[in-house]
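**Archive record**
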Amino acid sequence: MSSKTTKGHLYLIPTLLGESAVDKVLPPATIQLMHSLDYFIVEQLRTARRFLSKTGIAKPIDDITFFELNKHTKTFELQTYLQPALHGHHMGLMSEAGTPCVADPGALIVEMAQDAGIKVVPLTGPNSILLALMASGLNGQQFAFHGYLPIPAAERSKAIKTLERLSQTQNQTQIFIETPFRNNQLLEALLQNCSPETRLCIAANITMPGESIITRSIGQWKKHQIDLHKKPAVFLLGQKKATNS
């Protein structure tokens, strides 16, 4: 009989995008699977423990082993994080908000898991980028996500003009995000740098109370006041679809 240990799986576990009801956002199967795990790789320990408690996990939180993966994690520490999976235990990779590995450092661990022959299993849950795209009315056949745009004004303006040009020449929806307390500054830069006909979708508080997903032309947005301060938001630039006359 072979003594070789069967490797555990690495489950990619979505979390809430904000203060939402768990049962309205996460499928029961995702919650059930999550509650069965004893090992988690998380971005922040405190928020991960709070989230698990909110989902109604029965086992004591102190019986769960957590590994933190964020900007403070040392490279040599990462080598040990997948040891439970290599010894046959299933593990969970949990994002701070939404799905792991999208605008999230979890991709480092998934790369290591793939290289180690560990099965990676993505679970169903909310992704603000895709939800925003779905509801925007912009091109869902061709799109690109750019993460955060530059903060310095000159660099940000240049980036916005480049993205607008891509939306025009490639008919490609351009998606990006900003730290919530800088949302209003980004919106102002978009209004200053984009053509009046360019379409802008602002998707804020997705899956949360006060959810708002609105697409207007830049010209129309200039006529409407909107306060995005400290609201999680996704921004999408695109062009109006041509229609048959």
